[in-house]
Design a protein that fits this description.
Elements lengths: L1 H20 L6 H18 L11 H8 L10 H6 L1 H4 L3 H27 L1
Helix pairs in contact: 1-2
Length: about 120
């Protein structure tokens, strides 16, 4: 969860800066772009965990000890700190970020419906 949240923080920040600059308005295109950017960035962040999908524990461990492992949004640096990796703060932050985006989208949908 923490890896996806950290990976999504840049697309989320760009989205909310744009939302604020547009007078707290959002377009469907920006919502779709946010979803795609968040998904791509989140998938990139969990690349070091993918060998576990096909049961290759040896390659999973090897990948976590490579010098370039932090290229995946500091994945291995986070995994090395169990207190950070196991913190319940990050699932809460993830839910808050999702609620914030859904609230903005719902508000914009309501505005569009009012105009009709």
């Amino acid at each position: 969860m923490i890896h996806v949240l950290i990976a999504s923080s840049l697309p989320l920040a760009i989205f909310f800066v744009g939302w604020w600059r547009r007078g707290r308005r959002v377009t469907v295109r920006s919502l779709v772009t946010l979803a795609i950017a968040g998904a791509v960035s989140g998938l990139w962040a969990v690349v070091p965990d993918t060998p576990r999908l096909w049961g290759d524990q040896a390659y999973y461990v090897e990948l976590h000890h490579r010098s370039y492992c932090d290229a995946w949004w500091f994945h291995c640096a986070i995994d090395r700190r169990d207190a950070v990796d196991s913190s319940m703060l990050f699932p809460v932050l993830f839910v808050l970020a999702a609620v914030a985006v859904l609230t903005v989208a719902w508000r914009e949908l309501a505005r569009c419906e009012e105009r009709r």
